[in-house]
Structure formats: structure tokens, C-alpha cells
Amino acid sequence: MLTLARSTTVLQGLLLLLCGVSALCAADVDVSGELRTWHRVTLTFQGGETGENAEPNPFRDMRIDVTFTHTESGRKYVVPAFYAADGDAAESGATEGSKWRVHFAPDAPGRWNWRTQAWMAEDVAIDLSDAPEPHAEEGSFEVEESNATGRDFRAHGRLEYVGERYLRFKGTGEPFLKGGADSPENLLGYADFDGTYRHATNKKEGKASTDKLHRYEPHVRDWRPGDPTWRDGKGKGLVGAMNYLSSQGMNSVYFLTMNVTGDGKDVWPWTKHDVRDRFDCSKLDQWEIVFDHMTKQGLMLHVILQEQENDQLLDGGELGPERKLYLRELIARFAHHPAVVWNLGEENTNTPEQRRAMCRFIRETDPYDHPIVCHTFPNKIDEVYPTLLGFEHFEGPSLQTNDTHRNTVKWVRESAKAGRPWFVCLDEIGPAHTGVKPDADDPDHDEVRKKHLWGNLMGGGAGVEWYFGYRFAHNDLNCEDWRSREAMWKQTRVALDFFHQHLPFTEMQPADGLTVSKEDFVLAKPGEVYAVYLPEAAETTIDLVPGQYSRAWFDAKQGGEIDEADKLVEGGPGTRLESPKQGDWVLLLRRK
């Protein structure tokens, strides 16, 4: 129970609302959306009139779960519904209404049958153990194949963990390598979202100032006619920013959904920053407009559920009623997107038992089993991650480290030994005050590119997101313009393109010991293909399985076509290699 002194009021209110629920029937359900695979299909239900601040509490005391069953395969998804005020809250700003809603993403064409279960009882959204018999209705709809193309994730299907160290798209089977923005962490602290404000100032000596909400005005020019807005043209700055990142070839964005008492103090899903069981319908509908656009632009939602400063805020860190309501609401509203990763928290300090409980609840509630990861302090890596090795509801570390290559290789290997390979991503580099500097301060980004970008990918890692520190312009809390790191986006795109175009990387393993230099990174499918990253122009030797190999050089900074040499290399122990020019290069050796 969240509170103790409300039973009489709740029970009286439930009797009044019950009429609306009992009247719900299949004819009163509106099915909307594009009715295509991987696209959002929405069912809107008519219930009793209520509101965000009403008693009984529509977020706690009413629960609708909808089971979707594919006729041909028999596959089932149980999807939680949510209270949606008047059903148009993003535009109306409504806090009251009689609409409940469920978002569903079908994964196959054909007929889908749906069946509701609706309960009205005190705290039934938290616990069904004492719930009354549910009210049920049913119906069906037909789904066609997706017509999405290009970067739109709906053209590729749901991004899934498949027991390998790379996620794959369910629709196409393609492996996924991440490249994107880790900053600003308070992406959703945006002035155009309803109910968004800073609940306290955050001005610390030497730290980034957060005295203003984000507006992203430099990216208004990146908004295009036909792109979404809300409430008379709001949202162009953030929508335009997502267009810009997509245009740079990025495919992931990291953001907090709750930073109460944290660094930014400007992001939460509730009606107020100090409320824990009532959600802001119009704000969350506006978040959904942005998330839907991100999906269409090929940007994964990397959802950071909490940060170190507030990971004890809900239920003292335990999986209690506040945390369950928070997670259930986010899953109900946003889990239908094809590319979502749930992150247990930035610099997380929950106990191993608390992390596992949170993972289990997310897995039980999320119908699509989106991957779950965790970020922690660099000095806690060897304390936090061993407790999660082999755990069936956890898929990988979200690394904060400056020792990128070693940690990537370590957790790729340790997780494989535990029988559940992790996808190992680099999500923050140090020092904390620096991260990735703006191009104006570091136009070449040599250290970041060499140690971290190629360090992760050549270690068998699944990709990177770039953190902006707190001392430089457009930093982790006040970034307004992602063009400030355009050179870094280009270099990231160069690396990702090389892997996708030239390497069977899902079949390759880290193999640094094959070269004589300790500075080289090696990824190999022995006897067939080898990639050798040389951070500096140099001569090295590599132990190859005997045979003839074609040799090609690739410019790791500038990209471009690979430099195909016309002579063959005779493989064997101690094969000599020398990079063609100054700078960092990748040698590609393929068995003839």
C-alpha cells in the first residue's frame, strides 16, 4: 500500500467508476494506427470519468491488461494499458477524461485477436493477488506487412537479445552496432513539454549549470515540413535535433526518464516532482510523439530509469509500490517501440538483490522482452557486473570507463564463459569533466577515436554513445546543439560502416595476442579473415593460419574506400605488416 488512510474513499469511488467499466464492450473500443507489422496499433477504451488527481486513483486502482493472440501462430503478448485522460492530452493538455489506452506492436501479418481483463480494486495495478474477477471483452483486427523503409526501425523489426553478443532485428536478422549521443542526460528537460520545470537549482563549483530548460533552438532549422509538433507548433527544436543525429548516421540516444534530486532536476513522468503515483498524461503523450519520431529516424531509445542520486528514492531502493507503478507506466506507454533498451540506472548503487528484483519485474511486465543493462561507476565495475553474470533477465553492461578495450574484451569473454553472452557497450568515457570535447576544442578527437571507439568495436563490443562532460560548451546538462561534435559523429559513422560493410564481425573474436605489438587491436575469424587496428603508423607482425590472404588498408579516421593492394600476403607465424601512411589504420586480411 502506498498510503493507509484512504480505503473508504477509494471503495466509494470504485462503485461509481464500476458503471463505466461494466459498460465497456467491443463496440466501444476504437482501434487506430497503421495496422502493419512493427507499427503502433492503439486500442482506446471508454471507461468511467476520472482524472489524474481523482479518487480512486486511475493509475493505482484500475488495471487493464490486453492479451493479443496471433491466429496463425498462436503467439501471445500480454500488454498493460494506461490511463489516457481525454485521449488527446498531448494537444488538449487534459488532466481528466474517460479514456484508457493500450499500444501494441504486432510482429506478424494476419488476424490478431485481443481480449481485455479489467480490474477495479484498491492498488490493483500493483498487486493482483486479492483482485476481484476481471471484466473481459474481446475483438480482432487484421494486420498487413510493414511499408516502412530505410532507417525506420519498423522496416527491420524489433531489436532483440538472441543469446549472442550483438542484438539483432527480428524482422531482418541484421546485427546491431550502436553509435549515438549519451548527452545531454536530461534530454527530456525540454521547455516545450507540459509540466516540465526545474524543482531546484543545480549550480556547483566547476560543474555544469542547469538554470534553464532545454530549447534546442539551433536545431529548429533541422525540423522538416511534415514532422510532428504539438500544441500550435511546439517541439520543433527537439524533433529537429533527432533529425540531425539521424542524418549523421547515429542510431541511439541516451536519456533519463527521472532525475528528481539528481543532477538536472527537470525530468519525471509524474504530475509533480514530489508525487509518485499520478502520471502527467499530456507530458507523456508528448514524450511519445518524440519517441515515435525517433523510431522512424532509426534512433534507439536508451532509457535510463534512474541515476545514482535517486536510485534509493523509490521505496528506499526496493521493488515496492512506487517503483512498480513507475516501471509499469513506462512499459505500458513506450515498450511498443521496436528498439528500446532499459538501463537500471546511471552509476547505479542498488544492491545485487534490488537489481535482480527490478530486472525480473521489467521482464515480467514488458511483453516484448527488451534488453536490460546497467551503468555503474568505473571503480564499481568489478563489484557490480560479476553478480549479474549468467542472470537470465540481464543482457549487458553499460560501461563507464577509460580502460575501454580491456573492459570490453573482459566482459565479452566473462559473459560467454557464464553461458549468457552480453552485448557490451561503451556509454561514458572520462574524465567526468571532459568526456568528448566540442570540435572547437578537439577537432581531431584522436584519443577518443583510438582508445574508445575502435577500442570497443575491436574488442567485440556492441557500440558506443558519447558523453560530453561538464566543463565544455554544450555539455552533459546544457547541450543545445549536437553540431558541436559533428566530427565525432563522422568518425563514429566511419567505424560502424566499416564493420557492417567489410567484416563478418558476428563470427569474429578478439585476438590481440596474434600481433607482436601490445598496442594493436585484433579481431579474427582464424584462417578466414583478420582485422588489425594500428593506432599509429608502424610495422608489426601477425601470426596467421598458413595460406594466401588479400591485403587491404582502411583509414580509420577519414574512412573512404579500402585501399586494396594487388599483392597477396603469405600467411604463417610472424607475417610482417606495415601501415601505408601516418595515422591510425585498419588492416583487413581475407583468405583467398
The gist of it:
It is built from 10 helices and 26 strands. The protein is of the alpha/beta class.
Q: How is this structure best described in words?
A:
With 592 residues, the chain is α/β, with parallel strands linked by helices. It has helices spanning 7-22, 89-92, 236-247, 281-296, 321-334, 352-365, 381-384, 404-417, 446-457, 486-502, and strands at 30-33, 41-51, 62-70, 76-80, 82-83, 96-104, 110-120, 138-143, 159-160, 168-169, 178-181, 252-256, 300-304, 340-343, 372-375, 396-400, 425-428, 463-466, 509-510, 521-525, 529-534, 539-542, 548-555, 563-570, 575-578, 585-591. Strand 11 (178-181), helix 3 (236-247) and strand 12 (252-256) form a beta-alpha-beta unit. Helix 9 runs parallel beside helix 10. The protein is globular, with a radius of gyration of 25 Å. The chain starts with 6 loop residues before the first helix and ends with a strand.
Topology:
Elements: H1 7-22, E1 30-33, E2 41-51, E3 62-70, E4 76-80, E5 82-83, H2 89-92, E6 96-104, E7 110-120, E8 138-143, E9 159-160, E10 168-169, E11 178-181, H3 236-247, E12 252-256, H4 281-296, E13 300-304, H5 321-334, E14 340-343, H6 352-365, E15 372-375, H7 381-384, E16 396-400, H8 404-417, E17 425-428, H9 446-457, E18 463-466, H10 486-502, E19 509-510, E20 521-525, E21 529-534, E22 539-542, E23 548-555, E24 563-570, E25 575-578, E26 585-591
Parallel strand pairs: 11-12, 11-18, 12-13, 13-14, 14-15, 15-16, 16-17, 17-18
Antiparallel strand pairs: 1-2, 2-6, 3-4, 3-7, 5-6, 7-8, 9-10, 19-20, 20-21, 21-26, 22-25, 23-24, 23-26
